[in-house]
Amino acid sequence: MDLPSEQAADFRRTLARWYKQHARSLPWRETRDPYRIWDSEVMLQQTRVNAVLEHYARFLRKFPTIVSLALAPEADVLAVWSGLGYYRRARMLHKAAQFITAELDGVLPSTSAELRKLPGIGEYTSAAIASIAFGESIAVVDGNVERVLLRLTGRPEQTTSESKRFVADQAAALVPQRRSGTNAPGDHNQARMELGATICMPKGPLCLQCPVYDFCRTRGEHKTEAREKMRSRRVAYLLHQRKRGSVIEVMLHHRPADASLMPGMYELPELPMDGVEAYTPTLRVRHSITNTNYYVEVFTADKTLLRALPLSIREYEWCRLGQLADLPLTGLARKVLRRLHLIASPGVRMPQPETMMRQ
DNA sequence: AAGCCGTGGGG
DNA sequence: TCCCCAAGGCT
Q1: pLDDT in tens, A326-339
Q2: Residue A292: helix, strand or coil by DSSP?
Q3: Do residues A268 and A296 share a domain?
Q4: Tens digits of residue pLDDT in A209-250
Q5: Which of residues 201-240 of A touch strand C (CB under 7 A)?
Q6: SS3 for A284?
Q7: Does residue A225 carry a catalytic annotation?
Q8: Which of A59, A123, A202, A330 is the Cys-Cys partner for A267 at CB 3.0 to 4.6 Å?
Q9: A208 and A236, same structural domain?
């Protein structure tokens, strides 16, 4: 696009006006508590707003401050994260909170350069927190911004480092300077992402509603590359319960701490498919992970199925139904146990936003 | 630096 | 039902 400076200013004003009027009301936009903004940005990494909303409220109710997060056992942090995916984010967030508590007097750094050094905070997240929470004039580039800028400029979508640099340069050229009394950089960055999320979507962009239509080279003609096709796979899990006095327990598998996939999380014991052919499932659910659709069947235990388990019984753990909600369950385990009414769906209650903490 | 890490909702 | 995601970071 390479707008002349007055046109760049016009673009910024137009976008700002649109954002003020159309920004969705989201909990992390009601606060300037850097900790809350940090949490939201980590949760939003590769994750839809809808999925974040529920977890965000629960997370902040349970860990309202950096110190409270730092002091919590990792399993508790993972338990609240359960269902959000990319569990390493939760571990890194936890680690960063511990580092900040131990080394930085419990205060989140206020510049992108310092934030960038913390685990789980990369190029995008450091710029997002620095601009939104602290008003730093730095450009945020996420998937939305990249798509918006490529469409605006008419440059084809590419994964080359040259293309990345082009987008970064364009983004940097359009970021407003810091001004007192407002947060122009933070609002501008959020406005770009909001535009990408609600108007300039990957498929079927709503160009006729776009505030910067006049600045756009492509106006919806821009193509995005096709994805790899999803695969399908059938999997089977065992439901095995027992009674100890008045408490009911269910048998779970605790994934090893060094597993690459969902380490330390709890799931139902997996059964080999060839052991369940003669059985009718107690429950069927679909579950998609990355590029695979899983068609999941859950079978109630009997002696034959117990013998089909890949591990010896001792290697599984008996967990009380009452404590399931506090366990770091995999998303699938949580889904299955909820469908079977063995754990309650969480009541979603939003915490009151903190009083503005504008400096 | 390309590949890996998860998910529930919506079309 | 089947497919497509979405505000990245790390190794």
Answers
A1: 999 999 999 999 88
A2: strand
A3: yes
A4: 999 999 999 887 666 666 666 677 888 999 999 999 999 999
A5: 201-203, 224, 226-227, 229-230, 232
A6: strand
A7: no
A8: A330
A9: no
